[in-house]
Design a protein that fits this description.
The structure is a homotetramer of 365-residue chains.
Chain A: H1 10-13, H2 16-19, H3 27-30, H4 37-65, H5 72-99, H6 104-111, H7 123-132, H8 141-149, H9 153-164, H10 168-177, H11 181-184, H12 189-209, H13 216-236, H14 239-247, H15 255-266, H16 271-305, H17 316-326, H18 331-335, H19 351-356, H20 360-364
Helix pairs in contact in A: 4-5, 4-7, 4-10, 5-16, 7-9, 10-15, 12-13, 13-14, 16-17
Protein name (chains A, B, C, D): Tryptophan 2,3-dioxygenase
InterPro entries (chains A, B, C, D): Trp/Indoleamine_2_3_dOase-like, Trp_2_3_dOase
Binding site for heme (chains A, B, C, D): 297
Chain lengths: 365, 365, 365, 365
């Protein structure tokens, strides 16, 4: 053993007295112990431990992006940490199967003793959402409400403080915006891109128009969708139009950030874009996993309670349904596929630029 | 080797010449091979193989229930087969991660060559939905349309034929309806149940009324929900009311079937109810897994195409969103938790009845 | 809210102050905080929470079997509880992926501060093994040693006390042994079975003998294996032979229990055998999942440390390798496939027996 | 639709007539159809489809490394492809749960008709192993034998041809060996490293020596292990010693490749090492997943057959057990943790070197 290092014991190190001594059944207070209440408690405690770990990673990531310059070595770190978050999220999604080993009837045997506790009171989950960038104005109504009424004053103050700090969304937006690449090059990528996408849109219009399998009504709808897609494209090249659509919440990223992200996605195999591309992909995946979690959670609650009210005194299943539709954060990364061109339609980058996107070592060889 | 058994070889047995010779890239016809098209083809072929297996199990199950008497031994078999379906569905849901290793840009390199192919043309998937019991009138609009326009005449005829046959839903409903238990007993379970649920509903009403964390608007909504739950309860004891709600699609199961299912769920640990309970649970789970599949599929499509149109010439993501909300089949089993009583609120069954629900062996000992 | 029920709050109920306040990094004591130590702690705490839940289910199951009569309704419960254990085990196996997001180098940044803590000191895991039925004499050497030297006196006493109580293995063995079915029937199942298996063994012998793809050495080995299989078969019908093989640890179940289990597996679709069959299957699966856990754990340790010593001051990877091979408990259920006959080779049960294995309800109709 | 693109239909594109028409039950030839034989066929066909996809990725990766220069952009591609392989492998491992829904008895109802077919005859699996780099001399005995006897002449010729071509292992070894970084720098990393590791080894020796929880025998074993670890360390700095150990199969990578890999692992966050690190990690993971697959497969076979012989006329479970221990390919990457130093023990890289490992863009700013 290294000098000066005190011996460390498994149970002490993990503070198992606290961890394993924190399960007190409510049912025991009022009647016979409900066997499944232990599962209910432990499943939720495990979720909270994972939330703590996710916040540990998110906070470190926010600290990194909250600097003037993000070093390349730190970007590696950030990507690994976000991929760890995803691995944990996948596990959390699978964990729903454990909760579902409890039958609705078993749940009923202790439900009444939990009133008015509710998962909406998980401060860590709210911190997670806010840290990622879920703005209060984007929350579904029910969820907004819960901020004010269901929390203690301290908890509310903590969350409101957090809402004022820059979120990961904000910081990534800024970081993307200041990517210098697009502004300094005289190679006019965007001119080329404009032409290529115009062509693609015309093709899509043709495909819809000549699609005989669509009813007249459906065709009309599809053409309307196409029109809206076209407007989004036009906004890419017109700052004012973009800002207008952004106000309508059709975009959330700033104009510069969106263009940077688009360029990165188009040329993701260039060395300098590799980690940024992995970053964007990871944030998209985190959002997707969070959405799947809400959705599966909603199904589980319905299965457990039907249309009965939950312990929080409201039928959570309505809310959960709605939250799965809206509480998305990095929606722009999700929708970015709209604007992508296939490799074959992209211009070959001039050597001067390719060099700039490469490693030092190769540039001098 | 047993006499008269011809030797069997691995590759021949699995017909690997067919299986491994069925991947022809469209991209090769028109330009360079798109590396990821192989993945796209194989992922879909694997899905179709699993669909075939699921249909194999569903059809056998339908055959079993399509008899006048379902033997106890067959019920064991049915439950195992449905649990196998669930195991496959879980795998199919995880398989989406494989498809998501393809980036949107990689997909674009062959998307144009696939027009107008579309997953909506998977006959096996439609057969699966119809066999389970998805009625045309319950399908979301877009999906209804696709029946008429996107299929070949033969395929449409096949599906329309299938729609006329009894589905698993229909057969399970009938099987539940003819369970004799409730009608012959003079022990009045339902009278007791009526009283107990009335109490539970009053408690819930109190919980909502005294919940200070709800806004006035939310409280009004919750009380409205409560009212609707109460009406559903009332309908349990009133055939006419039930039929009225059933016409409004608030129930799909017949009155008798619903009551049988409810009784089974309340006393699932009684030997004779054990397999029926597992059956109901399995059907609920199949529905849930199918819904998760549609939902994850919808997210994947959005990630791959944004708001671009799909190869079928329509922006599938709209449809997929809607289908996740509605194309449920065994919704009543899902909502059944509404009507459940906790064990402690249930009457102890009289010995005469307990005996009837038990094994022969124990009844004589 | 129900009268007399005090309000319950999410964070208090889950004792989140304890749970989320139990992560103290050792690295912070001696140098800079190692970012990944948080993951290391939380991953282990989650495992311990799941162990607590598994023990909760196992202990309840042991209590059930520790009665003179196990009611049918309780058997339902037992099966559900063991299936829950399996669901948790699957999740625990997948959780290894979370630990593997930590690179070996990251682990090294705090490894030295953990000496001599070791996973071998997890009392809950040892309790789990002992409760299932892992006997000290079956433990691999290294593991035996750890009982005496690595634990505190209290912990050792606790485990030694537990070793003296009947394990789940012991109780299930007893419960299987007293199944009355085989002794009272005059239908001679075992006579029939003897003939059928003799035939099957002869066929297998032929298959090996005529297998030209085997080398002489391999054929010799296969025939030796066949011989040993044959001896096991012979022991089924000869109590003395059986006891002899049992002393050599070729069987662990008692003779009666093994025969009961075999009968159950052969006729698992008969109502009265349905739950016993699910019980046997669940115990096999629990053992398999535990073995997979040890194996994946061993791979992870090797990946993290190579051949370096672990924090416990010994190269755990050797031990873990060996433990995956031996620390199995319900090995007999695993090997039982050896003795199974295909359905077609089984005698049709006489109606009198079939009735005995059925429900009361059907027996009178 | 784009001009000149013929319409493409779902079922035709996927060649579903072939895929869904390739399931012919052997049991139907000789007796009644065995319901579970369909599952058995489809599960294996799905595996073969995934093998085809994995080979598609591996072959493309081999082609990339089989060039004189691997471009940075191609390295991105390679890493993505290998990560896709891992995603597929995880799914294949979970797929074992599907096979395990078949009971041993169900399998017996068609086992006899499959003789002498065997999974050992899967040519694609053998191609996969050989392409990765499994040398014949490293195969476990049984597996070696199967090359000669169980295959058709054509298949054997195909595999023997493949064995003569460079495997992914060979090519990655070469690519690592020619990394110029270590040879050109005058900064003496290895001198520093030597000193730091000597210290680490001394510490480990102390930890073992002062470990009172070890028995005398165990301590002796641990010290022997330590000695062998020390010899491996010494070999790192002595080409002759290294080659000697390599001949004893203690190392498989060439000396240069091992040192490169070690350097990459130590400084993985430097931009130029990012993708190489991901490559090494991916290859390690592929090996691990393959090993888990073999292990779980072995357990499944034991559960299905006990000690009975398999359809190939030999008790596969022996073989499978042994193969899980030995058929590893990238074992050096696995064991590399032995040689790693914690970040804190590593020298800060001089700026001149850091620059060389960075992006062009940052080097000029």
């Amino acid at each position: 053993m290294k000098k000066n290092i005190e011996p460390c014991y498994y149970g002490d190190y993990l503070q198992l007295d606290k961890i394993l001594g924190a399960q007190k059944l409510q049912s025991e207070k009022y009647s016979d112990a409900a066997h499944e209440e232990m599962l209910f408690i432990i499943v939720h405690q495990v979720y909270e431990l994972w939330f703590k770990q996710i916040l540990h990673e998110l906070n470190a990531t926010i600290d990194t992006f909250n600097q003037e310059v993000v070093k390349d070595q730190q970007l590696t770190q950030v990507v690994y940490r976000l991929q760890r978050v995803i691995t944990i999220q996948r596990l959390m999604n699978d964990q729903i199967a454990v909760m579902e080993t409890m039958t609705p009837q078993q749940f009923l045997s202790f439900r009444d003793y939990l009133v008015p506790a509710s998962g909406f009171q998980s401060i860590q989950f709210k911190r997670l959402e806010i840290s990622l960038g879920l703005k209060r104005e984007f929350r579904v109504d029910f969820d907004k409400q819960s901020f004010y009424s269901r929390l203690t004053d301290d908890d509310r103050a903590l969350l409101e403080g957090l809402e004022k700090k820059p979120s990961l969304f904000d910081l990534v937006d800024k970081w993307l915006s200041r990517m210098p690449l697009l502004k300094t090059d005289d190679f006019d990528f965007w001119e080329y891109y404009k032409k290529a996408t115009a062509e693609m849109l015309t093709d899509d219009h043709d495909t819809i128009s000549t699609n005989d399998t669509l009813s007249t009504a459906d065709k009309r709808q599809e053409l309307k969708d196409w029109q809206s897609t076209k407007e989004n494209f036009d906004a890419l090249f017109d700052h004012e139009k973009f800002e207008k659509l952004r106000k309508e919440d059709k975009f959330r990223l700033s104009h510069e950030a969106l263009l940077s992200a688009l360029f990165i996605k188009q040329y993701s195999e260039e060395p300098v874009f590799n980690l940024p591309f992995q970053l964007i992909t990871a944030l998209t995946e985190i959002d997707e996993q969070l959405t799947i979690w809400r959705y599966r959670h909603a199904m589980m609650v319905q299965r457990m309670l039907g249309t009965k009210i939950g312990t929080g005194g409201s039928s959570g299943h309505h809310y959960l349904k709605r939250t799965t539709e809206s509480n998305r954060i990095f929606l722009d990364f999700f929708n970015m596929a709209t604007f992508l061109l296939p490799k074959s339609a992209l211009p070959e980058l001039p050597n001067a630029i390719k060099r700039k996107l490469g490693f030092y070592l190769n540039s001098i060889s």
